[in-house]
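Entry for the shared binder. Reason: the reviewer on the internal report wants the predicted structure included alongside the sequence.
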Amino acid sequence: MRAFTSACYAVDIGHHSYPMDKYRLVPARLLAEATLSREELIEPEAATLDDILRVHTPEYVQAFVNGTLERKAMLRIGLPWSPELVRRAFAVIGGTIGATRLALKEGIAANLAGGTHHAFADHGEGYCIFNDMVIAMRRLRADGAARRFLVVDLDVHQGNGTAALCAGDPEVFTFSMHGENNYPARKEHGSWDIALPDGVTDEEYLGRLARALPQLVERFRPQLLFYQAGVDVLAGDRFGKLALTMEGVGERDRLVHDFAHRLGLPLVITLGGGYARDLEHIVEAHCQTVRIAKREKKG
């Protein structure tokens, strides 16, 4: 299995609640433990301005790229602006575009970043600047490679930007299973949203997911599946409120992989959120997602 990563995925944002170092530590660990070889780690080609403008407004894009976005708008994103942050945004989107193309050829691929599901057409929020998954969808359509997409978003936070951007698009189905009492305070209406109460543990979470996944293809027939594999569902996550164990998150990943495999659906994995106080816990959870993907591909 191949995955996209880059040194520019990790930029200096100072002392911050966003765990930027995970983008350096996850690929390093996957290499060290031989889950992935150097040949399986691919440097992405940066997205183009045209790619981003298929989804986001010219005013917002230009203001962010030029560093002239209003302070209030940058605070809403939650990251300090820098030229390196601009390069990172374009590289991460390129990684997701690359992963979609590979998945169509090889069945599965990952971007060891991405899942920026809080970005709207005219603004970013929640550490998300541009919406990589929707940009990748529009690029594939422009290339004539695929048209119908399913998003399975299992980050603890609803993918409000993705839901808003895909509203009214009959060729995209957005499924989100997230914390009811968590960010964003105002949820958007996706194709199917399951809101979970605080404190949900493995058994209830996995049961609800196992029942939901087969129903997705009763409602919609996709050509490609985007899996937003956020690990902020883990117990103790600072921004989470759910209570899954590491083993439960692994079983969640297996359920999604089995679902895609049974249907013969190309699968694109993005890492999504994770905000445990112990960075090691976040890194291990993301690496577990990739290990399971690699094993499932071999199987």
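Summary line for the report: The mean pLDDT is 97.
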